[in-house]
Specification:
- With about 220 residues, this protein is mainly alpha-helical.
- The chain is built from 7 helices and 4 strands.
- It has one domain.
- The chain has a two-stranded antiparallel sheet. It has a two-stranded antiparallel ribbon with strand order 3-4.
- Strand 3 and strand 4 form a beta hairpin.
- It is globular and about 50 Å long.
């Protein structure tokens, strides 16, 4: 995330009256194609799981095979996956969550101990504060989705639930059918009285989520 200002851009209030625009600075990554070009069975489990964690954490609504690049490292040509194009992350709701890797066999493998350790270190509040520090005040609904996503990721990993199972909670089976996470959000909203704090809502959805996940892990 960067802030920029240049006289070549047109500002309605004039160049000297603005503090700059905020946007994403992209770095070119050397690659040999995208995941559309290779059978997913060739991808290392740990590389796929890195993408899984990222997408669940950010509630990615546009993860298809074309926006995961492939890079080969070393003499043995070890495959490294590079996620790109994250303009539809941290959305206002879970309506459009889409994870290409749900159809890959690696997603059905459990997270490694190292990955679980990383997941346990995630802190939604610190991330939101960091984004604010860099100039983006995360809108309320986006922050809510972000908090719920990390909550689900951490609770699922703690119970040994696979990325596939967690992803299936977030993604719709069909366009007309609500996802499990959308139903959880709806139930939590109905259980919390109007005017209650965001923390009360999050506590409610945490209880609902525990109940559902405990059923999966038994």
């Amino acid at each position: 995330m960067v802030k920029w200002q240049h006289r070549g851009f047109k500002y309605a209030e004039g160049f000297n009256c603005v503090s700059g625009n905020i946007g994403s600075l992209q770095m070119f990554m050397k690659n040999c194609g995208s995941c559309e070009d290779i059978c997913p069975g060739a991808f290392p489990v740990e590389e796929v799981h890195k993408i899984c964690v990222l997408d669940i954490r950010l509630a990615n609504a546009d993860r298809h095979a074309g926006n995961i690049l492939i890079h080969k490292e070393g003499e043995d040509g070890r495959i490294v996956l590079i996620p790109i194009d994250h303009s539809y992350c941290m959305p206002e709701n879970f309506e459009d969550c889409t994870f290409e890797w749900l159809y890959w066999p690696q997603a059905r493998e459990p997270f490694s101990s190292d990955t679980i350790e990383y997941i346990n270190s995630l802190d939604a509040e610190k991330d939101i504060e960091l984004l604010k520090f860099h100039g983006w005040n995360v809108p309320h609904n986006c922050a809510r989705v972000f908090r719920i996503s990390i909550m689900l990721l951490k609770k699922g990993a703690e119970r040994g639930i696979t990325p596939f199972a967690i992803g299936c909670i977030m993604c719709k089976e069909t366009m007309k059918k609500e996802s499990v996470i959308e139903k959880m959000v709806q139930e939590a909203q109905e259980s919390v009285l109007p005017g209650k704090s965001e923390s009360a809502f999050l506590e409610s959805i945490s209880i609902i989520m525990d109940r559902y996940l405990d059923g999966l892990s038994t």
